[in-house]
Amino acid sequence: MMIRLPALILRPWSTGDTEALARLANDHGIWINLRDRFPHPYTHADAEGWIAHASTPQRALHFALETNGELAGGISLDPMSDNERNTAEIGYWLGRPYWNRGLATAAVIAVTEYALEGGGLQRVEAGVYAWNEASARVLTKAGYTLEGRLRRRVVKEGRIGDVLMFARIRDDCADAGSP
Questions:
Q1: How far apart are CA 171 and CA 134, in angstroms?
Q2: Global pTM?
């Protein structure tokens, strides 16, 4: 599946992304705001492993973000299960050279629209570390609502921090006319 936006293409990951992925993702400033399963340092082998994982059939959707023919980052939508099966978690990152261009916001809006309209979900949520103000702004600009603060939920580099829980629900889309 591919989503084309004016400044961005959301597309499947490919083996041709390996070098750029390893270079962009090997950044402490990105890793500090993501779960520990996102490795640091980020190696060529990590990039190969991620691309192999993201290329297999699964419930989650993983997109490479491309702008001007270059890999810029990634975004994923991971549907939940059991009695939370109408919900998915969205996660995203951008390489440092692509920060502050509105690309993350555009990607979040597009994937949220897909999930809530095309994917039949009722809710898309994202947990953001409280120190990651840029990501909180992305979600706010994408129409997400801050639902709460999960106190002392994460540990990153020995630092205990809060998680801000944001969500967008299908009714928000109907109220606004679109996601």
A1: 25
A2: 0.94
